[in-house]
Specification:
Rossmann fold; two-stranded antiparallel ribbon; globular
């Protein structure tokens, strides 16, 4: 079994690629979605986040995402601490999930594989890239938010150029090159 990381900056289209892979019957672990579930339900994460940010970190037993995002996007030190709390638990959860899969290729969709160093744990990593203007527009439409909010989130992630230097596989989601053809070509390379 090969474990393949699937990543890309916010608005790049990595989740779209993940959905296509899933439709092709490949197992996909959605790290960001699972992280949200674990933040709400894992007592280890809850106690550490409350210890770090105080009782406002949770409301009615659920993570106060607005409160937390205001803290971490304006303070890189807080962002690092939150990643140190959450990511090891998500990594263990992925390994448990992976052990139950039967496919020769399994995928882990995650926004910050490079930033956390988790990319080193995969047999290969696919980076989904898109022009910055398209990424901003997609996120504004998806999240119904302001351009400055999207730009702030983008600035908290590594640039595509920095990520490209660490992977051999790229999918260009620029509206010009068909995504499906790129995915099929990559699958042939990964299957060999």
């Amino acid at each position: 079994m090969k474990k393949i990381g699937l990543t890309g900056g916010i608005g790049s289209g990595k989740t779209t690629v993940a959905h296509i892979l899933e439709a092709m019957s490949y197992p996909v672990y959605y790290s960001d979605l699972r992280s949200k579930e674990l933040c709400d339900g894992d007592p280890r994460i809850q106690s550490q986040l409350i210890s770090l940010f105080g009782p406002k970190a949770y409301e009615d037993g659920k993570l106060n995402r607005t409160f937390l995002s205001e803290r971490i996007f304006s303070n890189p030190e807080f962002r690092l601490k939150v990643n140190e709390i959450i990511h090891p638990i998500v990594r263990k959860d992925f390994e448990y999930w992976a052990s139950a899969q039967k496919s020769e290729l399994i995928f882990n969709e995650a926004a910050i594989l490079f930033e956390t160093g988790a990319y080193k744990q995969f047999d290969a990593v696919i980076l989904v890239c898109a022009p910055l203007s398209q990424r901003i527009e997609r996120v504004m439409l998806r999240d119904l938010c302001e351009k400055t909010s999207v730009e702030q989130r983008i600035q908290s992630q590594w640039t595509d150029e920095k990520k490209r230097s660490l992977t051999n596989y790229c999918i260009e989601n620029n509206g010009i090159q068909p995504i499906l053809i790129q995915i099929e070509e990559l699958l042939m390379k990964l299957d060999s």
